[in-house]
Amino acid sequence: MRLLTGASSSFAALWELPLPTPSALGALLLAFITLSGCDLYGGGGGDGNSTTPNTYTVTFNSNGAPTTPAPISDITYGTVIYAPVFGWTGNEFLGWYDTTLTTKYTFPLTITTNITLYAKWKFAAADVAANAEDFPGVAASSITIKTISTPAEFNTTRDTIQATAGNYVLNINDDIDVGSAAIIPAADANISLRGGGTIHKSSGTDYPLFFLAYSGSKLILRDATLKGHSSNNRALVYVGSGATFDMLGGEIKDNNASGNSGGGVHVGVGNFTMYGGTISGNEANYGGGVFVNAGAGGTFNKTGGTIYGKDSGANTNSASADNRGHAVFYDNGGTTKYRDTTANALIGLNSADGTNWNE
Fold first, then answer.
1. Tag placement on the chain: N or C end, fewer CB within 10 Å?
2. Residue 26 phi/psi, 5° resolution?
3. Cα 121 to the chain's mean position, in Å?
4. Nearest to 326 by CA among 342, 350, 337
5. Would the CA dihedral through 41, 43, 49, 51 be positive or negative?
6. CB atoms within 10 A of CB 49
7. What is the pLDDT along the chain (359 residues), one digit of tens a residue?
8. 230 near 204, Cβ under 8 Å?
9. How far apart (Å, rounded) are the C-alpha atoms in residues 104 and 256?
């Protein structure tokens, strides 16, 4: 290095610097990067790992319980959290698990990543018995349990059932107006409806409330109520394409399908067995309560429950005329049978031999 000009009052001294060797230049560059806090691999500063978030979120899945703990957000790496206060009346809470419900998390829990925790339950004896009856041989961990209290929850659950085969328990504990919504379960989707609430299809004319259109789908009505409206033009439950409907209890009521057959239930190419419950206050052209298209392969067996007929006052199911089955109409490709008066616990109602029919 040598001096080219001296300093003056107006200018600083000017020096000639030799060019650095490549190794010296590299060392100089590395020193600059280190001092400035830059990341050679594309990040900013911080811990040098650009893919690691600064904070994390813990999300809780209640697995069907009526309430769900709020997520815990903005958790820094290594922070411990404590289990939220949580329960479900009538069932025993076993803890928070992974998505397969096999690995249990212990608390306090150290958080190092985003995570979802799943509630595991030991259900009340009545629910265990119902699950065993509704879904024989199915492990509890393979049953999806949902509590439906709002139209939004109904719609979200409907979307899942329509897209994914599986075993579903829907607890209907409130009276829910779902508007024109309908559920068309996927093939091999099995649904058990429970609870003392009502699903009310209050509008729409295009689809039944439950449209069992795919082979292997099944609806079990235990003790909820399905309610229609005065101009639905479709049954509340349609059973077709090798599907199954078992009615153990509950109600199907107040639906007008006067432009079609089957005010409460229309059995197409499927099977309907009635063990209990009531069907009342429905209207249709044929089969005010139930229409059975036996000619297409539909079957109907009744061992309990009540299907009201024209003699039932306010509970009357009604067809458009007598002999068209105010309670039940059976059509086997031109061979027809009907039940106009109230049908109580009858056996063989599906047979075409005249047993338990008016004519």
1. N
2. -65, -40
3. 18
4. 342
5. negative
6. 10
7. 554 555 454 545 445 555 555 555 544 444 444 444 444 334 444 444 555 558 999 999 888 787 889 999 999 999 999 999 888 877 889 999 998 888 999 999 999 999 999 998 887 777 888 899 999 999 887 888 888 889 999 999 999 999 999 999 999 988 999 999 999 999 999 999 998 899 999 998 888 999 999 999 999 999 999 999 988 889 999 999 899 999 999 999 999 998 899 999 999 999 999 999 999 999 999 999 999 999 999 999 888 899 998 876 777 888 888 888 899 999 988 888 888 888 775 545 554 444 566 65
8. no
9. 51
Q: By the 8 A CB rule, do 170 and 148 touch?
A: yes
Read off the DSSP letter of residue 40: T
According to the model, what pLDDT value does residue 329 have?
Answer: 92
Q: What span, in angstroms and rounded, lies between the C-alpha atoms of 341 and 183? A: 31
Helix, strand, coil shares of the chain, percent, nearest 5, are 15, 35, 50
Taking the CA of residue 71 as centre, how many other CA atoms within 13 Å lie in the half-sphere pointing to its CB? Answer: 10
130 DSSP assignment: H
CA atoms of 328 and 150, how far apart (whole Å)? 33
Task: Calculate the CA 190 to chain-centre distance.
Answer: 11
Query: Vertex 33, ends 30 and 34: CA angle to 5°?
Result: 85
Rounded CA Rg of the chain = 34
Sheet with 299-302, strands from edge to edge, namely 143-148, 166-172, 189-194, 218-221, 244-247, 271-274, 299-302
Question: Position of tokens 């590395």?
Answer: 30
Question: Can you tell me the distance from the alpha carbon of 62 to that of 112, in angstroms, rounded to the nearest whole number?
Answer: 22
- Is the C-alpha dihedral spanning 93, 98, 104, 105 positive or negative? negative
Strand ranges for 7-165 from DSSP E:
14-16, 55-61, 72-76, 80-81, 92-97, 109-110, 115-122, 143-148
130: left (phi over 0), alpha (psi -120 to 50) or beta: alpha
